[in-house]
Fold this protein.
Amino acid sequence: MSSVQAPTRHKVVVIGSGFGGLFGTKALRRAPVEVTMLAKTTHHLFQPLLYRVATGILSEGEIAPPTREVLSGRDNARAAR
Ligand SMILES: Cc1cc2nc3c(=O)[nH]c(=O)nc-3n(C[C@H](O)[C@H](O)[C@H](O)COP(=O)(O)OP(=O)(O)OC[C@H]3O[C@@H](n4cnc5c(N)ncnc54)[C@H](O)[C@@H]3O)c2cc1C
């Protein structure tokens, strides 16, 4: 008796949750791969708005959403540390 296995999808590891990492992961949304985004932090820092935090206009959380939240709803991507 032979067993038939479903084809395994390629695994892609993206290092970093900055602009490059996020846009790279999003670009693979419909690709037949499983993406793991490895990062030092658990959030994506939107650097262009740092000055607004420094000047008290925004809070840290408003420019640094959790990476898991940013990637939620994506079937083929997950964040890890
Ligand atoms: C104050 C400020 C304002 C800016 N304003 C603008 C602007 O108005 N317009 C504009 O176009 N650009 C702006 N930039 C530049 C823009 O933010 C950067 O060009 C952009 O963030 C670079 O993206 P990146 O993905 O290459 O790097 P980053 O966004 O720096 O991401 C690198 C990621 O890799 C992770 N990482 C690093 N080392 C490791 C490791 N060893 N293991 C795991 N993870 C690791 C980091 O934690 C980070 O998540 C600004 C930058 C700053 C600092």
Observations:
- Helices lie at 19-27, 50-54, 60-63, 67-70.
